[in-house]
Amino acid sequence: MTNLNILIVEGNPKDENQKFLNEGIQTHTESLKESLNYFSKKLSFDVVNPSSDENLEKVLDKLSFYDGLIWGGSSLNIYNDTPEIRRQISFMKECQKKLKNILAICWGMQVAVTAAGGVVKKAVNSHIGIANEITINDEGNKQEIYKDKIKRFNSPAFNFDEVTTLPKNSICLASNKINNVQGLYFETNNTRIWGLQYHPEITYEKMIRLIEFRKDRLIEKRRVFKDDSEVRNHISYIKKEISISDKYQRMLELKNWINIIS
What we know:
CATH architecture: 3-Layer(aba) Sandwich
Shape: globular
Distance between the termini: 7 Å
CATH topology: Rossmann fold
CATH superfamily: Class I glutamine amidotransferase (GATase) domain
Strand content: 25-35%
Number of helices: 11
Strand order of the largest sheet: 2-1-3-4-11-10-9-6-7
Radius of gyration: 17 Å
Structural class: alpha/beta
Helix content: 25-40%
């Protein structure tokens, strides 16, 4: 495997990341680096935060230098249309002109879809730490991103929104009962974009930490749990998944993407 230059896009603004760090939780960028390095040590990373970084022009000028870009998760909601979100969409549009390969995960997929003319809306149901029975369809079986992946699987996931309208010429690769679009592929401006609504790069242990960190919000604002007891029961369910989950299979999409762009 050759050395690869990878640009990681951090989806959370700096203040949200600082909250993560204050609680001893990895940022999404740190999770991406750790998981990618599990499959290859021949990766060089640069990191950009379109919501918070100044002088984005310097990064835009060298986008063609990178072999691939990975855009990770965020606690933002694309339809809120804040300046931070508009900056991310604008940056994604430039990436879709100047990069050849993009792996867009969860929030990253929602930004990629929006930038390419698709639509993301609030989901009827949500994934809190885990997505069950994601099923790869016939089109997904043809894609290298799912090479050697079991055809129906569970995965770490945390999302309240979903893709409702695909960009032009997109292909849905995987679905489950919560989200019709769990995996997708499309091309625009000679850029290849793979999208995953779930998180192969994040451990279930981190998802549990995030649930604990967001517990009050999940009960009082999101109303996905009635009380602390429901939160504890859900965490126990995820802990059972940890005992049967295979790390290699859980993260296989990352390995396959590295191989695709090598």
